[in-house]
C-alpha cells in the first residue's frame, strides 16, 4: 500500500507559517532588543547635550568651590610649592587645589567617561565615585530652552580647581574662583566662573544665553586695565608704552576674577576695568571659561596679536592675552607695541 501523505489545507499552511514566525521571533527578539539597546547606548556615549554639560559644569564648579572654602576656613591648606613659573615665581599648591580637583574632575569623568578633561592639577587618586544626578537648575532651563547635541570626540573640558592659589594662601578670598570651560573643536563654548566665598556663579553658553551681562558703559578714550598681581611681568610698562603713562593699571589676583571685573558681576565689592591684559605665558584652564563667557556676550579674548586662542592640544598659551567687551578690540590690538615675551616677562 502506498504511504499516506499529509495534506494541509490552505488554512493549515497559514497557521504553520505563523507558528514558525512566532518561534523565530521569540528566538531572535532578545538579540534584536539587546542590539538596539547597545546602539542607543552608543549614540548616547558618542554625543553630549550641551545644556546637560552646562548644568554639570556649574555643579562641578560649585562642588569644587565647597572644598576650597572648607579647607580655607578650617585653615588646613597644607601649602607647598609645585615648582616655578616661566617668570621664576613660586607656584603654590594646597589641599584646596587637590580636593577641588578630585571633586570636579571625577564628577565630570564619571558622568561622561569618554570626554577629554584637562585639569590644572594631575592628582587623580581614586575614591570619588559620584556622578551628576542629572538635575538642571530652573535658571538654566528657563534661559537655555533646548539642548544641542554635539559629538563627544569634539569636546575638550578645561577645569581650574582653584584659580588664584597665591591669593588663597594669603587669605585674599575675593580673588578666588573655580572654573569650568567646554571647548568644541578648540573653540570655547561653555564658561562657568564660581566664587566659593560668596556663592556667586557666572555662566554662559555661546549662541544661547548667560546669567551675567556687560556693564552699561566702558571707556575707550582712557581705558582702565586690570592685570595680574602675582605673574605680572613687565605688563605696566607694556600698557604705558601703548596707551600713555597716565593709563590706570590695577593689579588683581586670578584670571577668573579679572574677567568678572569687565562685567556687571556685582556679587560683592570688586574691581572694575575696561580691559584685561596679560603679557606672560598663561595656561588655558586659567582663561578658557572667561573666554567663553566674553564670547557669548559679544566680547573678545585673544592673544596680544589679536589671534583667537585654540583650546585644543597643549595646555599653554604663550602669546599673551587681551580681553575686552563693548570696545573696538582690533583698535586696542593695533595700539599695542610689538610683543616680545623675553622683553616683557
TrEMBL record:
Lineage: Eukaryota, Metazoa, Chordata, Craniata, Vertebrata
InterPro entries from the UniProt entry: CysQ/Inositol_MonoPase (IPR050725), Inositol_monophosphatase-like (IPR000760), Inositol_monophosphatase_CS (IPR020550)
Single GO MF descriptor: 3'-nucleotidase activity
CDD domains: IPPase
Domain of life from the UniProt record: Eukaryota
Cellular component, GO annotation: Golgi apparatus; membrane
Bilayer topology: Single-pass membrane protein
The protein, known as: inositol-phosphate phosphatase
The protein's required cofactors: Mg(2+)
Gene Ontology BP annotations: phosphatidylinositol phosphate biosynthetic process
Protein EC: 3.1.3.25
